[in-house]
Amino acid sequence: MSTTTKVEKKECPYCDGKGYFQLILGGSETCNSCEGTGKKS
């Protein structure tokens, strides 16, 4: 049995840590919440 330390990911909840939104019509838009970093501020 191995013990692993749980690493908590601090991803932006709006863009799932990607830093951008995929647009329906094509292309992408920078996430305003995390300003493109993908991390929770």
TrEMBL record:
- Tell me the superkingdom of the source: Bacteria
- Name the SUPFAM superfamilies for this protein: DnaJ/Hsp40 cysteine-rich domain
Cite the Pfam families for this sequence: DUF5351 (PF17302)
Database matches in Gene3D superfamilies: 6.20.20.10
The identity of this protein, by name, is YuiA family protein
- Organism encoding this protein: Metabacillus halosaccharovorans
